[in-house]
Design a protein that fits this description.
heterodimer; A: 217 residues; mainly alpha; globular; B: 662 residues; two-stranded antiparallel ribbon; 24 helices; 4 strands; 3% strand
């Protein structure tokens, strides 16, 4: 079953690259939903391959992740897209091509880091740690290079996904309540961002964060 | 005795809260604040003088809800001496303040002035008995903030707000150095307890040197060492007069106390510390008195004269340290004793002078001495006590300023004969400096007293002037009498402060010194007797004769006008000429132009040398240097995220590379 885990992780890595490469916001959201679904399956697959976690804990995490990351958040974000009437990421401060190259570079760095990082116990699969890092750094890349507020939401989501994957190496140490708490925080955070984006777009007719910086003191 | 001191702190804080609670009723908050402060000052003064006489040492430790530091208080001769200064002068100033604030009733909320006044006194008391670094800093900050709120009492005036900001910035910059010093000391001692500092800093080492320099800057900002004095001439005119009296008389001495306390931690001082203080004293004293000479605002003048007197104190300390470092007990004793006695004396006569200035301001509504004149006829008590204060501050015999400057002179002369040449010469440099300071101070106060109280009134402001009320006159009279008592009997004052001096050097006053002080008593008594005899003789001779009065400067002119008199500026102009290079001067001249000139104006402004030539360029350069750093601050969220991500990645790579490297 380890191969399936690696497959899921590869799916996550590819969706990272896709999010960075596409300029259509709807595709971004769809890719992040797929990534969320893959993440929801990940603990399950790891469990069947003998990675030891509590069953109840496992069930709640899988169901919660699936519901929130694969369904609720994508719906919220696509509604924000519809209401703000923004379809594309126009003129990002780092071009799409270079973003893909950068994302590849970050992936490379992540692989190097995973070879030297000393973990409290060996990771369940080879790919887990590098993909976790790559997702986290890609999230940063998205936050830095994009202008639309909606892409920023996706960036935050990617960062959280990276943390979630990395958490799988420590599944037994992280208390149940903490993981649920993070999930809830994320949901509320995205909810608030959705509302804020809505208000911003209604007020300023755009949600370009570059232009928002004229509000600084 | 600590119990009594604690009681007076409690009284002060309690009455401060009481005055704050009664903020809607100005009369009751005035009554509560004044009564509490007077009670506390009487209690505290009695306790601290008793402790000083018996050279008591006490210590007390209490719990404290903070993770670092503790409430550790103690009493020794040095603390008792400063406590006595605080309580005696604050008590007198409180009485004056009650009279001074009375006209504000109904016009302005009085509660802040009373609450923060009592808090300021309480903070100074706590500061002086603190034996723990953190507790000390807390008291220090309470002192700074309370005095900030007092300075900004009339905060609807633009100049007052600006002065308050200058003061706040200066005091917070100063305290940053104290934080650094206590952090260093605490790090090397492992605790912030003063007792643990004492043994843990190697004497004469580089740590001690760095701590000393930090203390000079940090405490010097409060005391007013040039060029750190810049807040004094702004804050004092802005503050109500009784607050100026307290701040100048007592609060700036907390800087001196802090420096002395630090010297006790740092072990036996190397001679260069003394030389540094002598240098600071010379610069501070001379530039203080020079700037005092140029001022038109009487309270600004007094503020600069405080700077000058801090210079004299620094000179005394410097001579004392040089003597101490060479094991010359006599020099050390004279230097420290001169400095400490001057702390007390300056507290007395400077509060007296500020009270006098407050009475003048009260009566005429102006602080500009150029528009005053002839006030002596309207306000004889204020005039006489102001004269007494002026004589004292000039260091003339009969009054206390002479005694303390005499001790510093003696110390410097003895250093010249008893120390190795290089250091002896450094100490001797104090002598001409003191002489120059003294002479210029005489000129400064002849000008101040002469222009304000003598001659004819220059403007309408004076015509309605009236003598101050009894609450304001009484403390001025008492303070003037105290000045005379210390001046006539300096040996008694020296006996009181000797235990405090002996915390620094084990030497006692030599018989020579004591004899010279007895001689002062003898000469002063004769002089005082002579003055009394002459006054009586005048009265007797004039009895039964007709005494006619004519306008001042009448001199046979047909139509004398007040504008014929010396103005304050013209009086000092020839004196200042040799020093003009030291004082920045801005002249604005307009006309007379053309063949038929209509009007012409001439205006000159004398600035502050240290402020305009040292501090302003330095702070501009500093801000310019820092503005380069501001390019990282663009207000764009993406850029900030880049910083975070870059930091994260660099840290990760660095740490992980370190792991593989091993």
């Amino acid at each position: 079953m380890k191969d399936y885990a690696d497959l899921l992780l590869l799916l996550v890595a590819v969706s990272n690259l896709y999010i960075v490469a596409t300029s259509r916001l709807n595709s971004c959201v769809r890719a992040s939903a797929i990534q969320g679904a893959a993440l929801a399956l990940l603990p399950l697959v790891l469990w069947t391959s003998g990675f030891n976690v509590q069953l109840f804990h496992l069930a709640v995490i899988c169901a919660g992740t699936l519901a929130i990351k694969a369904i609720v958040i994508p719906i919220l974000v696509s509604r924000a897209i519809r209401e703000a009437n923004v379809r594309r990421e126009v003129d990002p401060s780092v071009s799409l091509h270079s973003s893909v190259l950068l994302a590849g570079l970050l992936m490379g760095i992540s692989f190097w880091m995973s070879t030297v990082l000393v973990l409290p116990r060996p990771a369940p699969t080879m790919l887990l740690v590098p993909v976790a890092f790559a997702t986290l750094l890609t999230g940063f890349l998205v936050l830095i290079s994009r202008r639309q507020a909606i892409t920023h939401v996706i960036g935050y989501l990617l960062i959280e996904n990276g943390v979630f994957i990395f958490g799988q190496t420590l599944a037994r140490e992280v208390p149940f309540a903490v993981e649920l708490g993070i999930l809830l925080d994320l949901l509320v955070g995205i909810f608030v961002m959705g509302i804020a984006i809505n208000h911003i777009s209604r007020e300023f007719d755009h949600i370009d964060t570059e232009l928002l910086s004229t509000l600084k003191d | 005795m600590l119990g009594w001191i604690g009681l007076s702190i409690g009284l002060l804080i309690g009455s401060a809260l009481g005055a704050a609670v009664a903020f809607r009723a100005d009369r009751s908050s005035l009554a509560i604040g004044t009564a509490g402060s007077i009670l506390a000052c009487v209690t505290g003064a009695a306790a601290s003088i008793a402790a000083l006489v018996s050279s008591l040492e006490e210590s007390f430790l209490a719990d404290w809800p903070l993770p670092i530091g503790e409430i550790h208080v103690g009493l020794d001769s040095l603390s008792a001496f400063f406590l006595a200064c605080i309580f005696v002068i604050s008590g007198l100033v409180t009485v004056y303040g009650a009279g001074y604030l009375r006209p504000y009733i109904g016009k302005r909320r009085l509660a802040p002035a009373l609450t923060f006044f009592n808090l300021l006194v309480a903070a100074m008391v706590a500061l002086v008995i603190a034996r723990d670094g953190i507790f000390f800093l807390v008291a220090w900050e309470v002192m700074s903030f309370a005095s900030f709120f007092l300075v900004t009492f009339e905060n609807d005036r633009e100049d007052v707000r600006r002065a308050g900001m200058t003061y706040l910035i200066a005091s917070q910059l100063g305290v940053a150095f104290l934080f650094a010093m206590f952090a260093l000391l605490g790090h090397s001692a492992g605790s912030f307890n003063f007792d643990s500092f004492a043994g843990n800093v190697p004497a004469g080492g580089s740590l001690a040197g760095i701590c000393f320099l930090l203390a000079v800057v940090g405490f010097g900002t409060k005391a007013g060492f040039v060029p750190l004095h810049i807040w004094l001439p702004d804050a004092h005119p802005a503050a109500p007069s009784h607050v100026s009296a307290l701040m100048s008389g007592v609060m700036i001495k907390m800087g001196i106390y802090g420096l002395l306390r630090t010297l006790l931690f740092l072990g036996s001082p190397p001679a260069w510390w003394g030389a540094l203080l002598v240098g600071i004293g010379i610069v501070t004293g001379i530039s203080g008195v020079l700037h005092a000479l140029t001022q038109r605002d009487i309270k600004r003048l007094l503020a600069y004269s405080s700077v000058e007197n801090i210079g004299i104190i620094a000179l005394g300390l410097g001579v004392g340290i040089i003597g101490q470092s060479h094991g010359n007990g006599a020099v050390a004793f004279l230097g420290y004793a001169g400095a400490l006695l001057h702390v007390f004396n300056h507290g007395l006569f400077k509060s007296l002078l500020f009270e006098g200035a407050g009475s003048v301001l009260h009566a005429t509504g102006t602080r500009n001495i150029e528009s005053l004149g002839g006030l002596y006829r309207h306000m004889p008590v204020t005039g006489l006590t102001f004269l007494a204060g002026s004589l004292a501050i000039c260091g003339l015999p009969l009054f206390n300023g002479f005694a303390s400057e005499w001790l510093v002179y003696l110390g410097a002369f003895q250093a010249g004969s008893g120390l190795p040449a290089a250091w002896g010469v450094t100490a001797i440099a104090a002598i001409p400096a003191l002489a120059l300071i003294g002479a210029l101070a005489v000129a400064c106060f002849v000008r101040a007293f002469g222009v304000v109280f003598l001659g004819e009134s220059r403007t309408e402001a004076v015509t309605g002037a009236h003598e101050a009320g009894i609450a304001m006159r009484l403390p001025m009279i008492v303070t003037a009498v105290l000045c005379a008592v210390v001046g006539i009997w300096p040996a008694g004052a020296l006996r009181l402060i000797a235990p405090a001096v002996q915390m620094f050097t084990h030497a006692a006053a030599t018989t020579e010194t004591l004899e010279s002080l007895t001689a002062i008593t003898r000469i002063a008594s004769v002089l005082a007797g002579l003055v009394i005899v002459l006054v009586l003789a005048r009265k007797v001779l004039l009895r039964g004769r007709e005494v006619s009065q004519a306008p001042t400067w009448g001199c046979g002119y047909a139509l004398p006008t007040p504008r014929m008199q010396y103005s304050a500026a013209s009086f000092v102009e020839p004196l200042l000429r040799p020093f003009m290079a030291l004082i920045p001067i801005r002249v604005r001249r307009d006309g007379p132009n053309g063949f038929f000139p209509v009007k012409a104006t001439y205006e000159e402004r004398l600035g502050d040398a240290a402020g305009e030539r040292v501090l302003a360029p330095a702070s501009r350069a500093f801000i310019q240097a820092l503005s380069r750093v501001r390019i990282i601050q663009q207000g764009r969220i993406q850029l900030y995220l880049v910083y975070i991500a870059a930091t994260l990645v660099i840290l990760l790579v660095w740490q992980l590379a370190g792991v593989t490297g091993r």
